[in-house]
Specification:
By secondary structure, the protein is mainly alpha-helical. It contains 14 helices and four strands. The strands form two sheets. Strands 1-2 form a two-stranded parallel ribbon. It has a two-stranded antiparallel sheet with strand order 3-4. The radius of gyration is 21 Å and the shape is globular. It is an enzyme of class 1 (oxidoreductase). This is Peroxidase. Belongs to the peroxidase family. Ascorbate peroxidase subfamily. Belongs to the peroxidase family. Classical plant (class III) peroxidase subfamily. It is found in: Secreted. It catalyses: 2 a phenolic donor + H2O2 = 2 a phenolic radical donor + 2 H2O.
Length: about 350
Amino acid sequence: MASSSSTSMFLVFSSLLIFSTLLYVSEADYSAPIVKGLSWDYHHKTCHKVEKIVRKHLKKVFKEDIGQAAGLLRLHFHDCFVQGCDGSVLLDGSHGGPSEQTAPPNQSLRKQAFSIIEDLRNLVHRECGRVVSCADIVALAARDAVHLSGGPNYDVPLGRKDGLSFATQNATLDNLPAPTSNASTILSALATKNLTPTDVVALSGGHTIGVSHCSSFTPRLYPTQDPTMEKTFAHGLKEVCPTNTTNATTIMDIYSPIKFDNKYYVDLMNRQGLFTSDQDLYTHEVTKPIVESFAHDEKLFFEAFVKAMIKMGQMEVLTGEKGEIRAHCSIRNHDNKGYFSYLVEEEDQSDLESRAELR
């Protein structure tokens, strides 16, 4: 049975790779301005292989467990919505305060996602030196998570620097809309981040892959069932989460839980959205027609998703002299005891390369 399951997963992943090669959205298709300090070819001279390195490694990761794709995508969301796309969610806590990871919305982030980002940083820095930030690696990993799950491929503006601080727990809570939020609350909250209703609905489509813990949706089941939830769907959820304290998980898209597609919106039209924040998008007068348009036209959804992701990926970024490029994604350089020995290694490597050029 294990062999059969592994073979099936390999075939599914292979088919996703073949399908995803047909979907590409270039920077030419994205007309919004790019934040000063970022560019489409930022690492062309310093680390032109960075995107190949990231994608090659993630193909291996997803071949073993395609479920990690959703974890990496969510990590990018949670990084950007809280004090911008600066890699601060990756930081461990210090004497300056607790990590963003301890805040309730972040406690369910996949631990493996953090390990994958660090593995990618190690591979990239080994090839190019310390020239690519952890924040850029998170953005690239999210893009590849989407693409290698069957979604669109697209260019990512790069040049982010890593943040020197992490947000407080209150700031994290204030900036990550809860799954129990209604559409009006979410639209208002994300409008402050320059995201339009179309952006909000498109980004919500990231829920087409991944799983959720019972605690995120059991308020819709107990003590009374949410009348907007389809009865058979609700019955299935109650089997997974028989009480409001059950610690279990379930898929977020019942049609194609490991494929990045537009079936999430079909779920909403069938009243099978998992969270209040999902289902209410099909109730609100502003977002309902957007949901319907994405459900009927996957290409339209992909185009809107790419635009929204590129916009989100530039939120409050640090560039130029602001921030740093961490030698380890979970530790600020001045807190990293091994950082100075790392600098010595960099200088020695630079000297060797200079001598080689003189020969």
